[in-house]
Design brief:
By secondary structure, the protein is an alpha/beta fold. Helix content is about 45%, strand content about 15%. The protein folds into 5 domains: about 170 residues, MutS, connector domain (Nucleotidyltransferase, domain 5), CATH 3.30.420.110; about 170 residues, MutS, DNA mismatch repair protein, Chain A, domain 3 (Orthogonal Bundle); about 100 residues, MutS, DNA mismatch repair protein, Chain A, domain 3 (Orthogonal Bundle); about 210 residues, P-loop containing nucleotide triphosphate hydrolases (Rossmann fold, 3-Layer(aba) Sandwich); about 140 residues, no CATH class. Belongs to the DNA mismatch repair MutS family. This is Muts domain V-domain-containing protein.
Length: about 900
């Protein structure tokens, strides 16, 4: 009896021929071959809304584990969240609607997700109604209502589900049994968002230098004993939780396991016997549309593995007998014998008690032959007897050949040749009788067959196939009955995966002296350690403290090369991720706020494949980070790590851009930011800003600069400017002349810089004096000239504008050279003066605009009530009627340096004859 196939498919239209396009040219990208994820067969469907605000629907169908994940993302125009989500699952094939060939989303995914096949399906396959019908038919009965409720309003996710399952059915020729598919609607909230660049640069799942190295966070934490646990650990590292209740439950479970040695040892021992239950259950419920003998044969293997899986569950229940944490008690309840007793009875009534899954080909074949109990099928018993007798004939043949030819012959078996003969090469003396055929020499052994043995092999194969075919009816009936309980078995598998991950955390905490973190609003770490570095440098690693609050959210880290700056910020990120997957962390004390977004710009390599330099790559990544933070409504729950931004270009440009980006992060976001830089000026400039903190990694340098000791300790403030580079160069075996010349050049450059600074300062003062003298000369000419009235007023305004621009440029040049301008105020040696109006009072207008402040006038001996003044454009606002007046023309610049020009005029006949007298009240 064949396994009952699904009912009529919900999509009535015929399946349109597909077109495939590989995402080429192929480029190297981080893979996770060591994680058992790359071997999975995952199909993904992608659909998006129209319009500026992009809503992207995703459906992932894992054919290896019979799990379907649906999600709908509100993404930006860069589709960063979509790329990250797809990268987490690493699908082998991505499905698109055939009308989306030229869409921006397809182009971006094609560029950023290489080594993946893209397939286009007809629009008719993307039906929301069909998606909901698939849910009704395939979801677990107990999950149906919750899945339908979660999928409500997710139009694009439902369309993607329909397209994916239609593709699996008609193109891959596989269908799922009714109510046997794990369907999970994954919300966009509740997990930390980590973009692909951050995953790679922080080496979360793979070492950036070697794919075979275990020096990654996943490689460190992956002490799991089951494939299910390994997959769960990887998924948690890439998508840490932001749900406090879930994390606290995991902390309790890890603490429970790590403090009860007997329970911990029993759990780890019980986990060793588990097969990959997800793949076994998936193989049982995923049926090909065209049945083959290989499928029938594999079905027998699957039920044998199912028996092994079910029989191992009770050991977990027993091992957790002393558990107290709520999460461990839930796992124990799921593994209770009563929950899977029905499946166990079905298996016991069909399979022999001694049947167990074997890995050797001959043992596995014999298990397939004798797995069904004797007496269930009489014809099956007869066929098994024939198989047994034919095997005995092969054994007798080898014994006869050994005796006839006086050779020590061993009977061996492999899947390709079936039975064959193995002989020691030393026994044959380079001569083998002609009866032996298919001779093959393998090192010190000779492998061969005889014609009679080949004939017996064929008889054995025929007998084996007959037994398997006869067993198929019984096996398929068993599978059909087991599928009614498959949801329970999948839940047990998920519980075992969680227990495996938690026991791994407990082992790491015990062996590496990790502590339980706290979840608060403050990041505070006492003696924190980089989890990977401390494994490599067991004796030399120096722990460090960290403290960050909203009032100290922007931390500028400086220090010399090799002082440990990058290691310090990476350790903070890795400990944060560990805390948000439920693991203990390497520190004496640690508390963390729940981080919802993590960004890291720490890679310094050129992207040769994309023809992008280090600097261009930095700018592209920083633009993405700033844009993501700007669009995020809760950027105060974000963490940003930036390592030596701007070092890929000239020092001036690098400092300018680094300062601008730092200003944007500090002033427009509230993210916790660690900004590693070699630009000490950046720390000096931002030190007074609210929220900014300057720190450095300390180092000791001898007085002569010949020796330097790295302390690897975080300290407050900016380190003094010292020749750390020369001290580091001393560690390398340079020739003495090279280092001597380097020191001489460094000293000469320092002296030249000091001379330039002094000269520039003197030149600046001289420049100002020349401008003042030129102004005086212009005013003298005006007093002696013939221009008067309105023309003279306009000329004075223009003269003021020119003077202000030139003096402003001189002030800015001087501030760059000197760096100590006091921005105005009392008169000092630099030529800065107190801002005064004409009668000696404070001007009060300190907004820094460039303008003609006014012409304040008063009659000699008068109380000054009648005035003539000008606005900022030089327009006359009022005039008095007195014939003689004295006033002052006020000049000032953005640096609040004030210049006063006293003058007087007379109007005996009512005409505006302006008689200018001048004096300067500047230093």
């Amino acid at each position: 009896m064949s396994f009952p196939l699904s009912q009529a498919t919900p999509v009535a239209d015929s399946f349109v021929p597909l077109s495939r396009q590989s995402s080429g040219p192929l480029r190297t990208r981080p893979t996770t071959t060591a994680t058992s994820v790359a071997s999975q067969d995952i199909v993904c469907a992608v659909s998006e809304s129209r319009g500026i605000s992009s809503t992207v629907g995703l459906a992932f169908v894992n054919l290896s584990t019979a799990e379907t994940v649906l999600c709908q993302i509100c993404d930006s125009q860069t589709y960063a969240k979509t790329i990250t989500k797809i990268s987490v699952f690493e699908p082998t094939e991505i499905l698109f609607m055939n009308t989306a060939r030229d869409s921006k989303l397809y182009c971006i995914l094609h560029e950023n997700i290489p080594d993946t096949t893209f397939t286009f399906l007809d629009r008719r396959c993307w039906s929301e109604k069909a998606g909901h019908e698939y849910v009704d038919r395939l979801a677990f009965p107990e999950d149906l209502e919750s899945v339908k409720l979660a999928l409500g309003g997710h139009f694009f996710a439902a369309c993607c589900l329909a397209a994916t399952l239609k593709y699996v059915e008609l193109e891959l020729n596989r269908i799922f049994a009714s109510h046997s598919l794990r369907i999970r609607v994954e919300p966009s909230q509740g997990i930390m968002s980590i973009d692909l660049s951050t995953i790679v640069s922080l080496e979360l799942v793979q070492n950036i230098h070697s794919t075979k190295s275990k020096h990654s966070l996943f490689g460190l934490l992956n002490e799991t004993l089951t494939s299910m646990g390994s997959r769960l650990l990887r998924a948690n590292i890439l998508q840490p939780s932001t749900e406090q209740s879930k994390l606290l439950a995991r902390y309790d479970a890890v603490e429970d396991l790590s403090t009860k040695e007997d329970m911990f040892v029993s759990v780890r021992q019980a986990l060793k016997g588990f097969i990959d239950a997800d793949k076994v259950l998936s193989s049982l419920i995923l049926v090909p549309t065209k049945r083959t003998f290989q499928y029938v044969e594999q079905s027998v293997n699957n039920v044998i593995m199912l028996k092994s899986y079910v029989s191992s569950i009770k050991s977990i229940y027993k091992a957790l007998g002393t558990a107290q944490s709520s999460l461990l008690l839930t796992i124990r309840e799921l593994c209770a014998p009563a929950g899977h007793r029905g499946v166990e009875q079905l298996i016991e009534s069909t399979l022999n008690d001694h049947v167990a899954y074997q890995t050797k080909p001959l043992d596995l074949r014999n298990q397939r032959i004798y797995c069904v109990r004797t007496g269930v099928n009489t014809l099956l018993d007869v066929a098994r007897q024939t198989y047994k007798e034919t095997n005995m004939d092969a054994v007798d043949l080898i014994a006869q050949l050994s005796e006839t030819h006086n050779l020590n012959l061993d009977l061996k078996f492999d899947t390709a040749r079936q039975y064959y003969i193995s002989i020691s090469a030393a026994e044959t003396n380079c001569y083998l009788p002609d009866i032996f055929i298919n001779v093959y020499r393998k090192k010190k052994r000779i492998e061969c067959q005889t014609l009679d043995l080949v004939k017996l092999n064929q008889k054995i194969v025929d007998a084996h196939n007959e037994v398997v075919s006869m067993s198929d009816q019984t096996i398929q009936e068993l599978i059909r009955d087991v599928c009614t309980e498959v949801s329970t078995l999948f839940r047990v598998s998920e519980a075992i995966a969680m227990l495996d991950m938690l026991s791994t955390f407990a082992q790491l905490a015990t062996c590496n002296d990790y502590i339980r973190p706290e979840l608060t609003d403050v990041l505070a770490i006492k003696s924190g350690r980089h989890p990977l570095r401390e494994k490599i440098h067991t004796k030399k690693y120096v722990p460090n403290d960290a403290y960050a609050t909203p009032q100290s959210r922007f931390q500028i880290i400086t220090g010399c090369n090799m002082s440990g700056k990058s290691t310090y910020i990476r350790a903070l990120a890795l400990m944060t991720i560990m805390a948000q997957i439920g693991s203990f962390v390497p520190a004496e004390y640690a508390s963390f706020p729940l981080v919802h977004q993590l960004f890291a710009r720490v890679s310094t390599a050129d992207d040769l494949e994309a023809n992008v330099s280090t600097f261009a790559s930095e700018m592209r990544e920083m633009a993405f980070i700033l844009r993501s933070l700007e669009l995020s409504p809760d950027n105060n729950k974000s963490m940003v790590l930036i390592d030596e931004l701007g070092r890929g270009t000239s020092p001036t440009d690098g400092l300018s851009i680094a300062l601008a980006i730092a200003e944007a992060l500090l002033c427009t976001t509230h993210a916790l930011t660690w900004f590693v830089t070699h630009f000490h000026d950046l720390a000096t400039i931002l030190s007074a800003r609210p929220g900014a903190v300057s720190l450095h990694l300390a180092a000791d340098l001898t007085a002569d600069g010949s020796k330097m000791t790295m302390l690897y300790r975080i300290a407050e403030g900016v380190p003094p400017a010292q020749a750390y580079g020369l001290a580091l160069a001393n560690l390398v075996d340079f020739a003495p002349d090279v280092m001597r010349i380097a020191r001489d050049v460094s000293a000469a450059m320092d002296a030249l810089a000091r001379r330039r600074h002094s000269r520039a300062r003197s030149v600046g003062i001289a420049h100002k004096r020349r401008l003042l003298l030129a102004l005086r000369e212009q005013l003298v000419l005006a007093r002696c000239g013939t221009v008067s009235g309105e023309a003279l007023r306009r000329w004075l305004v223009r003269l003021q504008d020119e003077f202000v621009v030139r003096m402003d440029a001189a002030d800015e040049e001087g501030s760059l050279c000197e760096g100590d301008s006091d921005g105005g105020g009392d008169s000092d040696s630099e030529g800065n003066v107190r801002l005064l109006d004409s009668d000696g009072g404070n001007d009060g207008d300190d907004d820094g605009d460039i303008s003609l402040v006014g012409i304040h006038s008063g009659n000699d001996g008068d109380d000054g009530a009648d005035d003539m003044s000008c606005d900022s454009d030089g327009e006359v606002l009022a005039t008095d009627k007195h014939p003689t007046h004295h006033s002052a023309l006020v000049f000032y610049t953005r640096t609040s340096c004030l210049y006063l020009v006293s003058f007087s005029w007379s109007r005996p006949t009512g005409e505006r004859d302006l008689l200018v007298e001048f004096s300067f009240s500047c230093g």
